[in-house]
Structure formats: structure tokens, C-alpha cells
Amino acid sequence: MNIQTAIKMTAAETALVDAYTAQIGDLIGDGAVLSARDTLVHGLKTQGLPTRRVESWHYTDLRALLRTVPAADPTAFAERVEPLVAGSSVLTVLNGKADPKTAPAGINVRSYAESLADGVAAPDLIERGPDDAIGRINGSFVRDGFEIEIPEGTELEVPLEIQLVQSLGQSHTRFPVTFGAGAKATIIERHLSVSDAPSLVTSVSDLILDEGAEITWIILQQQGAADSHLGQVNFDLGTNAQLKLFVINAGAKLVRQEIHGVTTGEGADFKLRGINLLGGETHTDVTFTLGHDVPNTTSTEVIRNVLFDRAKGVFQGQIRVAPDAQKTDAKMACNTLLLSDDADFSAKPELEIFADDVQCGHGATVIDINPTHLYYLQARGIPENKARAMLVNAFVDEIVEELENEALIETLETIIANWLEKHA
Amino acid sequence: MLEIRNLHARIAEDGTEIIRGLNLTVKAGEVAAIMGPNGSGKSTLSYILSGRSDYEVTEGDILYNGESILELDPSERAAKGVFLAFQYPVEIPGVATMQFLKVALNEQRKFRGEAELSTPDFIRRVKEAAAKLQINPDMLKRPLNVGFSGGEKKRAEILQMALLEPKLCILDETDSGLDIDALKIVADGVNALRSPDRAVIVITHYQRLLEYIVPDSVHVLYKGQVIKSGDKSLALDLEANGYADIIDAAA
């Protein structure tokens, strides 16, 4: 017997469920897609948004934090902006509407709306597990995105920027991306807001890297002060594939960015580099899980957080090593610069190791600005506020410097410096 | 240029008194050596002159060009021309050496109401000064002092001094950790800065450095006071006979 306790739905939960009913005639999808959506919405209706009683949401009580959901507004207007790096290829998603026409030569791009319409997308629209609230919300409402294939051996000379510009309302997008054997590319998933009105943005990227692909994927989130961002990246790394994933949060009121990966080919290497710039009364959660499923795969994760004001931050990092995944080498670090007594950061590392010949480690630090460093800079004539800004910058710049594209490094440094100037 | 009057100072955290009634006058153009046994307060004096907040002045005053600098923070003192070459220069990961030099130079210029240096002008100055100190340009591409050897750090301090052109230079055991060749290069760098409008305070344990940077006056610091002053022959005397006689005589 299966008894479902009826929950009293919050305003946000009601708004989501009602929105689904209201849009039912309008949501894209063939029979299989629509039935997958129904299943996901049913989960939302019966379980509600996750609370702190759900372990993976313990530090981010979504039910309490996501109070209201702005209504979708199909008439909202947003315009393309200049790419981060001049000369990049740009694919735009303006208020959730994707335009595949500007795809660069040599790669295959089609709009996800088409994949929904003809049912290709149906198998994607499932939950990762009972706690997959992002997959559930996104799968219920997803309207667009890009399905991208970078064929075997293709090297993209310039970065490909997927630009998601939001003005208000809602946007739910998906990006299944396959990188063929030996493909090399830098992809920028850039979320930004062009108005102060609230938005709810959900975005799921599913990356598959074939043998020897070398990919840098950057998620730059700069949404507005009233926005909620629910993001998820899933990846699967084949033999000798290398993925460097940079996650930079510098905006939004409520953020949950999930990263879930598996290494399925020997020699695969994953790097996660994260920067969370947190200020105001915001809540930002980066949750990461990685399964080292086969022998001889490596990963390093370095997260740097800077907190001002009453900001709250969370990093959950889970590394699982399968029983036969010998010679796994995984190292995780989470370093936090806490610059306000009212700010709060929770770090939760988890290692689940079932093999016996592995190297795994994790460390978390919480620090203030080093007074000796500050004194040294001041002793050379740099005023205190400027010296502080330099040291905060230095703390996160070590991460940015790991990128290889000089123009991209410079742009990100400017974005970070501007953010710090506004919040410090 | 510098007049220290009956200075008393303690460690802010635990109240330990380190400087106990110190008097010292250094004139423009003068090179003054401060010597003394371990724990006599030499490094503390240098930190207090630079304005480090870990120390509290409880009595007395420090006059620089006739004005008290006790209320100035380290950056203001630096901009007014006080420079401390650290005994242990600090490694700061993530701060590029060139960026640091440029910000420091321009912030000091800004404080004094001077125009900022253009980038080409700045780079030219750094290159010239670095070449004189035999500093490998690759070193300047690294984060500040990170991965520098002991000798490289000391040379980097003198490079900063040469670029910032301070009026009062305080060298805190700049000779420690230097081999004889590096010592000569550093000493040449300091001597090149000697001028009638600039004073230098050399804090050292050993007479050796004073063979290369010849002082006009030598002062012995003990238990937070200057217990004896003299000319350069005092340093030779200390080298030969140690501190015991002077300490006994002062007691």
C-alpha cells in the first residue's frame, strides 16, 4: 500500500502546478514528451519542492526559499548582447527562445523545441532520482534550447557562446551536447539578466564527451538581484576525455547549480573550478557529484567563495569511487573568504570509496583577509580599501588564470573586479 | 628628518612592552646603522616606524620632517616617503608582481597629487631598475614574492625601494640570507639611492653589510633603548668585542 500524505502547497508550488495546467495546450511535445511531462508534474504535485528533510537539499530548503514564481510572459523582450570574447560564435536564447540560425560551420545545431515536437527529447525528460527537483521542474516546462553535435575531430577555433538573456518571467531550456572523438572546444554558457524584474530560469545541459575530446565549459551566471536560477550540468566522460568545467556565480537571489558526472572511459580527467561571488541577502548552492566508475580516471575540484553582507553559500561535493575503479585520483578543495560576520557558508564534502588502491582527498578552509598580506600592501602605499580589493581579487584570480584563452581571462577579471567594486 | 622621542611601544595583543624610552635622530643625507642583540627590539622599531597595527605606541612620539606620523596608517606613511625593506618579504599568491608595482607607484603618486605613470613609462622604469639589481625579468611575471629564493626576495625589496624613491629607507636585516655576491648587488642598490635629501636606517646583526653600506652613525639597541651611539668604528668594535661590555657599561 502506498499512502501519499497530501501536502499543503506553497504559493510557489501552486504557481508551478497551475502554470502547467494553464500551458497544457501550448507546451511543445509529441505524445511521449507530453506523457513524460505529466509524470514529472505529478512528482511535483505529490512531493512538492524539496525541504531540508531531503538530504541533498538540507542546506537549501527550496520550499522555503522559492517563495514565489513569476508568471511566464511570452511577450517579454530581450536582445542579444555582445559576446564575452570578441569574435566568438554566438547562439542566443532570448527569454527562453532559442535561435539556431547563427550556428557556426562544422557543428550541427538544432533547436530543442524541434526535438520536443518530434519526440526525440522524450527520453531526456526523466528525473535523476527522487530528489531531482531541477530535472522535474525543467522537464515539465522545457520549451527550447539547443541540441548540439560537435563531430569527431572538430576543433572550434573560437569560443562558442550560448547566450541566455532574460528580462523577466520564466525560461526553461535544455542543451544536450555531444562531443565526438578528439573534438576540442571552449563553450560558454552565459546566463544574464537585462531587467530588475524577477525571473525563474532553469537550465539543464547534458554533455557527452567521446574518446579524447578536450572541452572547456564555462557557466557564467550573472542574473538579476530578484532572479532564481536552477541549473544542472550532467556529463559523461569517455576514454581519455578531458572536461574542464568553470562555474562562476555572480548574480541572482537564489541559485542552485548542480553538477553531476561520471567517468566511463579509462584515462578520463575532470576539472571543476568554481567561483562564487556572494553578496546581499542571497542564497547560492553548488552541488556536485562525480562517479569514478572505471579504473585510472582523475579529477580535481577547487571552489573559491567570497561572501559579503548577509549572503549564504553552500558547496556539496560528493566523489564516489566504484569497486573496480582502481588508481582513481581525486582531490577536492573548497576555500571560503568570509568578509562579513552575517554571511554564512556551508561546505559538505563526501567521499564514498569502494576501491582500495586510490588517492582521494578533500579539504575545506574558511578565512578572512590575511592581515600580514594587507599590511605589506599598505606598507607600499596602497590604501586599505584598495589593498583589500586586490587580495580578494587574488583569491579568485588564481582560478581564472587557469583558463587558457587570454581574452576570456581578461573579460572575466573585469567582471569580477566590477562585481567586487560594487559589493566591497 | 626622523626624530624619535622617548618612544614606548608594546605588542597590541598581549601588552608586552618592547620599546622602552627610545631616542634617535636621523638627519637627511645620513645613513644610520642600528645594531643590537636578538630580541632588543630592532625589527619592532622598523614595524612601528612603518605603522604596523600589531604594535601600540604608549608614550613618546615619532616626528618625520617635523610632523608626528603616529596617527597615519601604513599607506599614508609610505606615500609620504617612508619605506621598510622587510626582513621577511611576504608572498602573496594571486597578486602579479608587475600589477602590484604599478598600483603601489600610482597610489603613492595619487596621494601626492602627481599624475599617474603611463604604462610604457612604468615598464621602462621597472626594466631599468631590475637590470641594475640583476633581477631576471621572468621573476617579475610571477605572483608577488611567490617562489622567489631568499636572495631574490631581498633584491625585489630593493627594486621596490628604487622605484618608489622614498625619503626614509629602513632596511631590516636586508643582509640576512644573502651570499656575498648578492650582498654586494643589494648594497650597490642602496648606495645608488644615497642622496642629501634621503636618510637610510640599516638594521643589521653584522658588521659585514656595513663594509658595503658605510654608515655615518651607529646605534646600539638593547631592551628597547639606544644605549650607545657612535660612528662607524663602533660597529667594528662590536664585531671584535661583542655587546657585553657596552651592555654592562649602560647598566
Which structural traits does this protein have?
A: 424 residues, alpha/beta, 10-stranded mixed beta sheet, globular, B: 251 residues, Rossmann fold, 6-stranded mixed beta sheet, 28% strand
Descriptive overview:
The complex is a heterodimer of chains A (about 425) and B (about 250). The mean pLDDT of chain A is about 95. The radius of gyration of chain A is 21 Å and the shape is globular. By secondary structure, chain A is an alpha/beta fold. In chain A, the strands form two sheets. Chain A has a ten-stranded mixed β-sheet with strand order 2-1-5-7-9-11-13-15-17-19, with helices on one face. Chain A starts with 10 loop residues before the first helix and ends with a helix. Chain A has two domains: about 10-265, no CATH class; about 370-424, no CATH class. Helices cover about 20% and strands about 40% of the residues of chain A. Chain B is an alpha/beta fold. Chain B has a single domain, classed as 3-Layer(aba) Sandwich (Rossmann fold). In chain B, the strands form three sheets. Chain B has a six-stranded mixed β-sheet, with helices on both faces. A four-stranded antiparallel β-sheet of chain B has the order 2-1-4-5. Chain B has a two-stranded antiparallel sheet with strand order 7-8. The longest helix of chain B has 15 residues, at about 95-110. Chain B is globular. The model of chain B has no long low-confidence stretch (mean pLDDT about 95). The interface of A and B includes residues 384 and 386 of A.
Strand neighbour order, sheet with most strands of chain B: 6-9-10-3-11-12
Count the DSSP helices of chain A. 8
Supply the helix-strand structural class of chain B.
Answer: alpha/beta
Give the strand tally of chain B: 12
Report the strand count of chain A: 19
Query: What low-confidence regions of chain A span 5 or more consecutive residues with pLDDT below 50?
Result: none
The description of the largest β-sheet of chain A is: 10 strands, mixed
Q: What is the fourth-level CATH superfamily of chain B?
A: P-loop containing nucleotide triphosphate hydrolases
- Tally of individual domains of chain A: 2
Q: Count up the helices of chain B.
A: 9
Helicity of chain B, in percent? 25-40%
In the CATH hierarchy, the architecture of chain B is 3-Layer(aba) Sandwich
